[in-house]
Each structure stands twice: as structure tokens, then as C-alpha cells.
Specification:
Layout: H1 4-18, E1 23-26, E2 45-49, E3 52-56, E4 62-66, E5 72-77, E6 89-93, E7 95-96, H2 107-110, E8 112-113, E9 127-132, E10 136-140, H3 142-151, H4 163-170, H5 176-179, H6 191-200, H7 214-229, E11 232-233, E12 236-237, E13 277-282, E14 285-289
Antiparallel strand pairs: 1-6, 2-3, 3-4, 4-10, 5-9, 6-9, 7-8, 11-12, 13-14
Helix pairs in contact: 6-7
The structure holds a DNA duplex (13 and 13 nucleotides).
Length: 300
DNA sequence: GAGGAATGAGAAA
DNA sequence: TTCTCCTTCCTCA
């Protein structure tokens, strides 16, 4: 379900948990049949570009994961839980045992264990992740991964040079609210950040790309990096400034205070009080904006 | 228990 | 522009 910030977060967490060691992997319900390619091999690093994850096992083998709209990970420590729900793939840390976990098993598959009850393992060291509902979970070569990254636009979370993306916006007749959703313009931005970045720049979603001022473009780009980096609070995206949120008790940011316009249609704009608007199917998704703060005449 | 919506994107028409 | 993939969670009855 996440936008780019959530993807980079998973990459960092999974790299910290698994990289540098052999990992176990399977697709216990037959939804992922290539787990053998990776099972028992050492994970070298976890790549993140836009909304794409790449678990790099070296030797020209990368596990590509794209969560899409419905995909999500669950993670935990302790013993691997029983299979439940619709599980695509799971990955867990492997502890090396002195004897094959399964007598007669091949070295690659049999000499690592996490929950086989052999007693060779400290349960506190076990970490696991489960993946369900992804758009893609498949084997990539280095070349295929490179083709993917070349197709994507600059990613605000990867310190990329934004000029390539700016150039595409400047020559496009499409609305900026549509361009922000296109991953070959900017990678990693999704429907929440589209709405919130446009609002924070007081930019109308309907202005053609070629008519958006450079100042606003740069402002949105400069905003996007830190905003996406700080983006997750309790697995939620928060984009409101503290001064624009109502004061409530405790340090927790309430879900209804997290956004300026996203899913706030019918509610008053936090800045001007005008009712926030919603339009269905704008670049295939629901668009939210304030018709006053983001009026087309506001463009610099 | 049904039905819809959700932080996505590729293919089809 | 419309369909289709796919899973979970929430609302409503």
C-alpha cells in the first residue's frame, strides 16, 4: 500500500534484518514458485527506487517486489508464525546449524534452520517477513533491474537530480496533478503526496505542466524529500505542519489531523475554511484539493 | 455477510 | 479511458 517513503522504509528495515547472512525463503501456498532461486543464499543488500524493491542476492539475481495498491508486509521476531491468509512469499533469517535440519537434505536448503525445533537457534535472533497481495514478486537480472531504474524518473528519496523530471513537466500539456502520478516523471510519489505536495505549494492540480512556474516545481521537489523521509508516523503518512493541526492532548497525531486535503472532501480547508473538493478518476484516482488555496490564478 | 474503498500500474480497447 | 489484477479492512445491514 505504501508510496515511495514506505518502500524505502521497508528496504532499510529488511536490509538491517537480513543483509550479510543467508536467508530462507518460500512461497508456501504456491503463489511464488521461484523461491528456490534465493532460498539459503546470502542477501547482499536491499535496493529501493520509487515504489520498487530489489532484494539483491548477487550473482545476477534480484528479487523484485512491487506492492501495488493492496500489497503489504508483515514482519516480526520470534518463531515463524503459521501460514494464514493469502501469503505470496515469506523470508526469514537462517541460523546455521551443525547438522542438516532435514537428514539428507542438500547443503543449500538443509543446513539452515529457523523453526525446525533442532534447538540450535536463539529465538530472539529470528526475524521474518511475510508478503501478501503484491503486484509483482519475481526474479530479476541486474540488467532488468537497470532497465527499470532507467525508466523511472528522479526519486526524491534517492538524492537524484530532478532536472530530467522538470524537463518532462515543462514540455507537457498534461495537468500537473496527473504528471505527479507518473513514475517516469518523478518516482515514488503516489496519491497522498500528489494531493499534499500540491496543496503545500498552493498549486492547482489542473494547471498544465508547461504552465507551472519553475519556482513552484523546485518548491515541490525540495518539499518532497524531507516530507517523504519524515512521512511515516505509525505506518501513516503525515503532511500537516504542527501549526496547522488542532492542539490535542498527548504527542500522538490523530489520523484526522494528518493531511491538508487528502480524503478531507467536504471538510473545511485548514487554511481558509473552504470545503475541500474531491474529483474521482483524476489520473485514475481520487483527487482532493482546496479550490481557493489552490486556485489556478494562484500560480506564480 | 455483503459491498466498497485503498498509499498502483499494466494491458486492453 | 476502462478493465483487471489482488488482499485487507472498514462500514453498513
Amino acid at each position: 500500500m505504501p508510496e515511495g517513503n514506505g518502500i524505502h522504509r521497508w528496504a532499510a528495515r529488511h536490509e538491517a534484518a537480513f543483509a550479510g547472512k543467508p536467508v530462507r525463503m518460500d512461497g508456501p501456498q504456491g503463489r511464488f514458485t521461484d523461491s528456490d532461486v534465493f532460498d539459503g543464499r546470502k542477501l547482499e543488500r536491499v535496493l529501493a527506487v520509487g515504489k520498487h524493491l530489489g532484494y539483491d542476492f548477487g550473482k545476477d539475481r534480484i528479487l523484485h517486489v512491487h506492492l501495488g495498491l493492496q500489497g503489504d508486509f508483515t514482519e516480526g521476531s520470534g518463531p515463524l508464525p503459521a501460514v494464514r491468509g493469502a501469503l505470496r512469499m515469506r523470508m526469514w533469517s537462517a541460523a546455521k546449524v551443525k547438522q542438516p535440519a532435514v537428514p539428507g537434505a542438500s547443503k543449500r536448503h538443509g543446513w539452515y534452520s529457523s523453526d525446525d525445533g533442532t534447538g540450535h537457534l536463539d529465538p530472539e535472533q529470528v526475524a521474518w517477513v511475510e508478503l501478501r497481495g503484491p503486484t509483482d514478486c519475481s526474479v530479476y537480472t541486474n540488467e532488468k533491474w537497470q532497465q527499470l531504474t532507467e525508466r523511472l524518473g528522479p526519486d526524491p528519496l534517492n538524492q537524484d537530480d530532478p532536472e530530467r523530471g522538470f524537463a518532462k513537466v515543462r514540455k507537457s500539456k498534461k495537468a500537473i496533478g496527473q504528471l505527479l502520478m507518473e513514475q517516469d516523471v518523478f518516482a515514488g510519489i503516489g496519491n497522498i503526496y500528489r494531493a499534499e505536495l500540491l496543496f503545500r505549494a498552493r498549486q492547482s492540480p489542473f494547471t498544465a505542466g508547461k504552465d507551472v512556474s519553475d519556482a513552484v516545481l523546485r518548491k515541490m521537489w525540495k518539499d518532497a524529500g524531507p516530507l517523504m523521509q519524515a512521512g511515516m508516523v505509525d505506518r501513516r503518512i503525515v503532511t500537516t505542519l504542527a501549526k496547522d493541526r488542532p492542539r490535542r492532548g498527548g504527542g500522538v497525531i490523530a489520523a484526522e489531523d494528518a493531511h491538508y486535503v487528502y480524503r478531507r472532501n467536504g471538510l473545511p480547508c485548514r487554511i481558509c475554511g473552504t470545503k475541500v473538493m474531491k474529483m474521482e478518476g483524476f489520473a485514475g484516482r481520487n483527487l482532493f484539493w482546496c479550490p481557493v488555496c489552490q486556485a489556478e490564478e494562484n500560480k506564480a
